Amino acid sequence: SARASKKIKEINSDSFIVWGGHHPSLAAEQCLSEDYIDAVVMGEGEDTAVQLAHALKYGSDLGGILGAAYKKNNEIKINPPRPRIKDLDRLEADWSLVKPEDYIIKNRNQRIIGFYSSRGCPYNCGFCSSSKFFERTWRPHSADYVVEKLKNLKDRHGITGVIFADDNFFIDQKRAFEIIEKLRGIGIRTQTLDIRINHLNDDILQKLQNLEASGIFFGWESGNNRLLELMDKGITVEDVLEKVALIAKYPRVSIWASGILGLPTETKEETMNTIKVGLEISRLHPYSIVSFQVYLPFPGTRFFDLAVREGFKPPKTTEEWGEIDAYGQSRMASWLP
Questions:
Q1: Residue 332, pLDDT score
Q2: Tens digits of per-residue pLDDT, 100-132?
Q3: How far are the Cα atoms of 42, 76, 85, 171, 323 from residue 48, in angstroms, in the given order?
Q4: Cα dist. 19→70, 82, 165, 175, 290 in Å?
Q5: I need a labelling partner for 208 at 20 to 30 A (CA). Which of 137, 183, 246, 306 fits?
Q6: pLDDT tens digits for 204-248?
Q7: Is pTM beyond 0.85 here?
Q8: Beta-strand pair 215-221/75-78
């Protein structure tokens, strides 16, 4: 994004560049210190972006736009935050503005698309930017909205499967199953959904298998109870292995289990413990993907502050932030001995 924004500014210095999303929302001042960023939409952007566009079109002052940050006479201005959207169902995605084929995953005879059916998560994992961005709130689209939108995508673009990208799809269990069941009734299978592993039980797993919901994603994070307690995850290593063994009783439900390496204060022995637990998850469940990524220090999170205390030196420029990659090496684990 930084490289693209800089290039646009080089081509047309009068262009007005607006950034939004988790990082700009949590590091607005640093983003606005860059010559190639003119404004930041903080938090949910649907209403803020529209008001910002109208103000730019008609030459209005940006000072009254809640959720906007911008520069005026080379001074950074941060407006008050915008209240969270109460009725998510009023939002409409205009698919005519993009090429839907670019977003469709083709797997054998399946045509699968990612979809957010809710926003946020009420939990407080210390490494996660979502809890800061959404302030530990969870707001869902209605089940009818989700089914209607996905049915439209099926009718117009042949969608046969969906990956629910929510932070936690199963906050409201009744709603979750209503969506999965109604989608199955119109020929759309739920391929993957996110759930906290401690929420799983035989009843849920049997229903998922019966409804042909073929995969679940969960973050088990670490193979060390000390670190799980430090991040306020609310589970233990023993819980993880017990639940994975339970899931394995339902062979048509595969899992994607995500772990994190290099958490602040993590020792070499604890890193190896996490790898060993990942291998044990793979052994317990024959249809599993076990992934590892290096911990990322997201601004505004509790673990970011902990990483800084442990020696992490935050990037001084937005471009340097772009070098930090959960699967790369640059700057990684500089907070560890």
A1: 60
A2: 999 999 988 899 999 999 999 999 999 999 988
A3: 8, 17, 11, 28, 29
A4: 10, 16, 22, 33, 33
A5: 137
A6: 999 999 999 999 999 999 999 999 999 999 999 999 999 999 999
A7: yes
A8: unpaired
Rounded Cα gap, residues 296 and 156, in angstroms: 39
User: What burial class does residue 308 get, using C-beta atoms within 10 Å of its C-beta: 0-12 exposed, 13-18 middle, 19+ buried?
Assistant: middle
End-to-end Cα separation, the chain, in angstroms: 32
